[in-house]
Specification:
mainly alpha
């Protein structure tokens, strides 16, 4: 009997030791709960701070906040449509010439206003003086609407003009007449005039040459030679060219 009682006492002691750790576990849970409450409070405070936004700024006081204002320091300008530097009624962002009130459009972006551009949709060309549809830079006759290219006949007239000058002295008008006369080369007057215009000839020196030829053929007085050189029935030099020639030969 005493042995049985002793056994119960031992078992009771062991059971009590096993129950002791339970309060410690409870303490740990409470601590965790405390830490959790602290973290939750801190998170709530951070979220509250993030939700506070800065007041919108309107620097120029025009009723449009700076973030939405094209010119936040100019109360007269809220959008890009309000910027018109030359006051021509066309906003700068649409104006090819924002500082020139006379012009605003440049369709081909060649820096020539459409109003002055004879080819507003072609950036390669901009001027057509004679209005023949051929740009001056491509037109052999930019002031003559009746033609724009150098023809084979014109090239021949130029070659003939050079041949005549190699053979004899001519005035500008005398050479045109020789090229276009039915008794000469019979080129069209327009072609003959063009050909003579291409020559780099010193007509005063041609007059000197003609004066010497006349004197080799016949004697002349000073005035007689000037008249012969400048006469429409003679060499057709200008009076100035004829006078220069006579002075040059010492007559």
């Amino acid at each position: 009997m005493s042995t049985f009682v002793l056994l119960l006492v031992i078992l009771g002691a062991l059971g009590g030791e096993a129950d002791d750790p339970a309060p410690a576990a409870a303490d740990t849970s409470a601590q965790a709960a405390g830490e959790s409450d602290s973290d939750t409070a801190a998170g709530t405070a951070t979220e509250t701070e993030d939700e506070v936004e800065a007041e919108p700024v309107d620097s120029d006081g025009d009723g449009v906040i700076d973030e939405e204002d094209f010119a936040p320091k100019d109360r007269k300008v809220q959008t890009k449509e309000d910027v018109d530097t030359d006051k021509d009624g066309v906003a700068d962002f649409e104006d090819a010439f924002p500082k020139n009130a006379k012009y605003a459009k440049d369709a081909d972006e060649d820096s020539v206003p459409d109003e002055l551009d004879d080819f507003p949709k072609d950036a390669r060309y901009s001027q057509d003086t004679d209005g023949d549809g051929v740009a001056d830079s491509k037109d052999a006759f930019p002031k003559d609407p009746s033609r724009s290219k150098v023809t084979f006949a014109m090239e021949n007239a130029l070659a003939a003009a050079q041949d005549y000058l190699d053979f004899s002295a001519f005035s500008r008008q005398g050479l045109i007449d020789q090229l276009s006369s039915e008794y000469g080369s019979d080129f069209r007057l327009e072609d003959a005039t063009w050909a003579v215009g291409q020559l780099k000839t010193d007509w005063k020196q041609q007059a000197v040459r003609a004066a010497k030829d006349y004197l080799d053929f016949s004697p002349f007085s000073r005035q007689g030679l000037i008249d012969q050189l400048s006469s429409p029935h003679g060499s057709q030099f200008t009076v100035g060219e004829a006078t220069f020639a006579v002075n040059k030969i010492g007559l």
